[in-house]
Design a protein that fits this description.
heterodimer, A: about 300 residues, alpha+beta, 2 domains, four-stranded antiparallel beta sheet, rod-shaped, B: about 220 residues, alpha/beta, six-stranded mixed beta sheet, 8 helices, 10 strands, about 35% helix, globular
Amino acid sequence: MKALLELFVGDPQADRAVPPTGMTARLTVFVAAVMAFLAIISLALSGSAGRVADRWADELAQSSTLRLPSDGAQADALLVSALEVLQTTPGVQRVRALSPDEQQALLEPWFGPDLPLDTLPIPQLIEIIADDDGYDAEGLRARLAAQVPGAVLDDHTSWRAPLLAAASRVRLIGWAVILLIAAVIAAMITLAAQASLAANAQVIRVLRLVGARDVYIARAFVRRFTLRAGLGAVGGVIIGLLALQLMPDSDGVGGLITNIGFVGVGWIWPLLIPPLSAIVAFVATRRAAFARLREQT
Amino acid sequence: MIELDQVSYGYGDTALFSQLSLSLAPGSFHFLTGPSGAGKTTLLRLCYADLQAMAGRVRLFGHNAAHLDRDAVALARRRIGVVHQDCQFLDHLSIAENIALPLTVADRAHEADGNLQELLSWVGLGPQAAQLPPQLSGGERQRAALARAVIMSPDVIIADEPTGNVDAEMSQRLLTLLVELNKMGKAVLIATHDLAMIRSMKADVNARVLRLKDGHLTQAGADL
């Protein structure tokens, strides 16, 4: 706790023992800001893509389709039987036979608007909306096979699986990007710290000669780079959030590329990025400082 | 407090000295003389563990210097005030801050207030307290280096040519300070070329004069 307090409060006299180095200071702040900006955009993108995939998967999970064979003579009887079976199936909240217009609308993107539906053997579709607990798809298939021959139940499993896999991958990629960004911050801070330590070799020698312990010398560098990385990350996060605000709002199909941002507990990430950047900088600088001090007699 | 026992040191294949022994006891006062390149500065650096002996043993305050870790060496150096030949300042800090540096690194900066002003005026640097080291003359820098060496009231004071750049009056003042500190029980070791200064001090302090020449440390004779 004392070390943490010292890190933030600092010791002005101890800090002054190491001269400020302009270039490494500016580079550290800049790199931390850029990395934090990229982290924000990456998290927002992966979060949004994951949410869209989740939403689609949820919608598909609750709805399914029953397709009746296009048997002209038996069509009405099959429809009545199918509706009867579905309405008596536990877990089915609502069923609705699609009207010819709705079926035509579904086919329109492929066949155009002038499709003579009544002259074609188009199967009848029934939309099934399940309740929260869902229904037993295998049981329903068995009943349909017995009472509605030729009916095909599509519970969208084949559609949902790749969506769920895609959502999972997108999140995984988001995490991988965050880890890479953390690694880049660590590498850049290490290089900057090493450059600063090398530039201050004579200062370190004098401090040693007057009795400074390694931890005292390292502290001045560690605190400096930790605060720079944290401040840079705050700037990067603010710029990243402003950039996200510039994205236009939109619902519907455009949601994937327009509603990029954070929702609910996801807002914790913009808050966590600066302290996480500072922690990465703290560890990287501390390691670099002690390694350098061990080398320098 | 500081003992060198059969110590050898050299650079590359060239031995600077070998099997050299020296003991700095509390209250002792030593002058170290010898020609340039004889190894006086090297010997001093061995005394404050800035160098490790190649053979033999250096003991700092009862501990073998070869076995001290880096923190222990730092703590030992707080008990040794060193005046370096080239002064060794932090050029971005004021002279006052440089003089107080040993207290600062020991987290005892709060003790600096009274001592620092007294020391600054004693070495005649009160008006220059806020100046940076490069703005000072050689003599002023040397006085500041001595003030820094004594601000922690160390047990041992090691000075490498402390009067090299100061006039006779200031030289006398600096040496008088070292004698006063010696009378308080501090061990003092001064490396110098200035034989006249040694002669002038012999009346004020019971000093041993050592001569380092051709790798051997001997007691100086009647020529002093």
